Please model this.
Amino acid sequence: MTERNELCWCGSGKKYKKCHLSSDEEKRAPPAQRGVPARTSAKAPQKGRQKTPAQIDGMRRSGVFNGQLMDYIRRYVVAGAVTDDINTLIHGYTVDHGHIPACLGYRGNKRVFPKSCCISRNNVVCHGIPSKSELLSDGDIVNIDLTTIVDGFHGDSSETFMIGAVDRNARRLVGVAARALIAGIDAVRPGAHLRAIGEAIEPFVNAQGCSVVRQYTGHGIGAKFHESFSVYHHIEPRGEDVIMMPGMTFTIEPMINLGGFEVTTDRKDGWTVRTQDGSLSAQFEHTVLVTDGGAEVLTLTPSQRAAGVRLFVDGEAYR
Ligand code: MF3
Ligand code: CO
Ligand code: CO
Model:
């Protein structure tokens, strides 16, 4: 997730949005005018963000591998599993296939991420660090977020797993998070504003009595892990105008809380993000490509592809 409000990676002590955010947006175009009707002159300014056919091919291949990795790891996400052991399996599978776990050594707000994936359990919203002392137990919900670099291109996806008998509210939250991702993907359409994604997600989530985390967003993705624009999952009036164009690739990854949207980052490890009110949080993420007709989900897993679904949660299909 791109974190606009945390300290810049360069060590300046300034917030990222006040420092390197804009320079990170390579080939960044002048912002389109607000209120431009869809499918108009906003085409040109978005040009630098559209991948070439060769880059799209690279993104397809990294997405396929990331999906394979997700299907590989799901059998190990069970009660009694130690999260650091899950991390070890993810790392091993990735390097054994000749690829690179993007999280390992990733630079955030001055800190380097120490593991090869993020594992975020219960009230942890995102960026949980796999640990030798963290065990999955009956009743937990746990998100596993995988990002792999395959021949220079990033694939990024996550799922929330339910461990054993999960209580009604947790189960409901996981379903809302899955639906939120599907609603976001369904809002992808060439010529539409990127903010259509948040406009589809937030009202739905709020109507379910849950909330959308605002501090973290989806992101452009390609040769870089977090590139160019932010993909808001909520309605953000200050967001940059971006028009979705065929060839753009980005993630959609709404983090949904059972309570309020506010979050806090662990001061000691600098990474673990928790809900401020201690409520449960769930998330699903896919990397998508904007096509002429809508969205192509690049990170579908082999089992999702075979079943023709975009998510499979505890036996339930989200088409
Ligand atoms: N995979 C996360 C995302 O969806 C980012 C994790 S960054 C890490 O954007 F450093 F914590 F791994
Ligand atoms: Co992401
Ligand atoms: Co991710």
Remarks:
- The chain has one domain: 16-25+48-318.
- Confidence is low (pLDDT under 50) at residues 8-12, 26-44.
- DSSP finds six helices and 17 strands in the chain.
